[in-house]
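User: Structure with H79, tokens only please.
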Amino acid sequence: MKLFETVLMVACAATLYGAPADSAEAKRTQWYRDAKFGMFIHWGPYSLASIEASWPIMTEGFNETEYRALPQRFNPENFDATALVRLAKAAGQKYMVITTKHHDGFVMFDSLFTEYKITKTPYQKDIVAELAEAAKAEGMPLGFYYSPPDMHHPGYRDTSKPASANWHGEPWRPEWPLYLDYMELQLTELLTRYNDVALIWFDGLGQQGKYNGRRFHDLIHRLQPATLINDRIGLPGDFGTPEQFAPKGIPTKKPRGTNDGGTMTDWTKKGNLPKPEEFRLWETCMTINETWAYNKNDRKFKSSRDLIRTLVDVASKGGNFLLNVGPTPEGTIQPEFQERLMAIGKWLKVNGDAIYGTTYGPLQELTFGRSTQKGNTVYIHVFDWPKGSLEINDFSGQAAAASLLAGHRPLKFTQNGRNLKIEVPTQAPDPDVSVVALKMK
Ligand code: H79
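Assistant:
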């Protein structure tokens, strides 16, 4: 092969397959791009009642007075922050995000600016502090979910009315600026007391303009320039947040700047590959069953296989997967969640190379699975194991070597133009997803 052809091919591979540009923004987000898989934690006194976080008072599903009394009984005596961080590690998760304040307004840290907080419960200890210490000791990046909507603060809404009447907030009232000041004070606490904050996860619901997101972006950047910010306070932030689904195509940056509260309607047409500079960082958050909060009655657990395949699907489009657990009122993680997390961790031990540090793969239309890419290696994630050989019809690279990640077993292959035929064993090495690594020239 002539030299200029080689140079051209390497250049094309780099452009086509989405290595992020070497900008300051790329450096700031590098850890997050590499992490791919995180643990979301939705926890508060609501876990006592096996009801969803906050929403029951916003939709009149649960008596508000009774809800407000839950902290009096909240005492998760068996909470072990280190054990939780180690569980995340065993699952292969590379960052954690905890609800420091959900829409109900209850804060899980010892804020000076409210009495509706964890340190006023029988538990008394600051849960955010406990987790922050454990995370630091274990080298685990920790991010904070902080809800701009706040049903408890009298500046956010007229709290003499039921939350169902005004849960969107009342920014036209003269008290509103006091609420924004309260947000500033609490975000300052979160960003100055609890070590490095990996990210702030706002959850602004609709009509996010009323929060003056610019003010809070500036505040966060001033206090901790490295902290990433999601897209739910009226500005696009560092990453998009599709909730409970993976987008069909690969998310791209939008010229008009904002998106509609994390619904992320902007992605390439299914199958298209964006240029690296068009790619928008994103993260799918998802529950293991159907509720964010602990709920003993919710038995609709996704299978380990479905969760592994969702992780792969998300990674194949360049995203991160933030998988939620709702700890019990005792502070433990229910066995059904643990089992699934351990199964994902076991899969990642063998196949992690095909997830961590990868970006969207060049093959977006595979019928039998998904693809990811890292440098010169394309990973083929096979959901439906073939009889005989694995055939790829539209491969634009030049394969140099193929192997199974399971057992690092080399595989024979033939390439004819864009047609690639890989000889594989009859039995799938993994019943959930088996990965073939394709090194390219
Ligand atoms: O914190 C979690 C959810 O509480 C929150 N975001 C995640 C991370 C969230 N924000 N919006 N949504 C969830 C979508 C809301 C959906 C519903 Fe409802 C809440 C369906 C039923 C209750 C609001 C009330 C929409 C319909 C009725």
